[in-house]
Fold this sequence. Notes:
The protein is mainly α. It has one domain. Helices cover about 80% and strands about 0% of the residues. Helix 2 packs antiparallel against helix 10, helix 2 crosses helix 11 and helix 5 runs parallel beside helix 9. The longest helix is centred in the last third of the chain and has 29 residues. The two termini are about 15 Å apart.
Amino acid sequence: xxxxxxxxxxxxxxxxxxxxxxxxxxxxxxxxxxxxxxxxxxxxxxxxxxxxxxxxxxxxxxxxxxxxxxxxxxxxxxxxxxxxxxxxxxxxxxxxxxxxxxxxxxxxxxxxxxxxxxxxxxxxxxxxxxxxxxxxxxxxxxxxxxxxxxxxxxxxxxxxxxxxxxxxxxxxxxxxxxxxxxxxxxxxxxxxxxxxxxxxxxxxxxxxxxxxxxxxxxxxxxxxxxxxxxxxxxxxxxxxxxxxxxxxxxxxxxxxxxxxxxxxxxxxxxxxxxxxxxxxxxxxxxxxxxxxxxxxxxxxx
Length: 301
């Protein structure tokens, strides 16, 4: 059982690494696509990649899809259609620092959603781990200087990203109700298909109002990364990890995202690694370790 949980947390960490690249790409492509179209193209790529592998496994499972149509619709709505559209919309007008800071609030919303939907209560170690991880994020965002945090300004995009946090919390909690007949790949394929279909009317209206431009090679590469790495691989890793350890414990691993984002900025943007980076990342990892290893949530397993 211990090895299984360790593997699950490794998958959750990898999901956050891939998602941190998605935030970088989303900010870079803010002028190339509107948020909903970017989200739609991302999932079209994902469906094209998944379909050859998922369709053979779907034989005989479509009756289960119909039986569980309600929960699958909700997973697609919250996890595919709404969440990332809100994030891409927010990244158009907010700074990367503000976006990462708001993303750090996700575990708190996941705890709240777990309590509201499943009546699952957090342990003391999970609450303590969350607070320690947030402290580490603030160290990085403030560059080791607390007064820097007081200079942060809110942008319109901050509210869209903040709104996205409970949306993801609902998605993660509802994963516990996924159809048992569907494996991870089949589940991802179905909710990707449904989520993309939900975006079609909005994309059509936006295209009618303003004809889309053909993206250049860098923009196309960004969409491919989003579709393959941030959608197929990351969602598969996340779904499997949540299924093993639960939404509460998995939620704390999202504090790894800003840590990975810092490392990616250093590697890809040539920023200097400084002492506050090391202190912040070490604090984040300590909080995640305390929250995930210190004990399971009381109430439902």
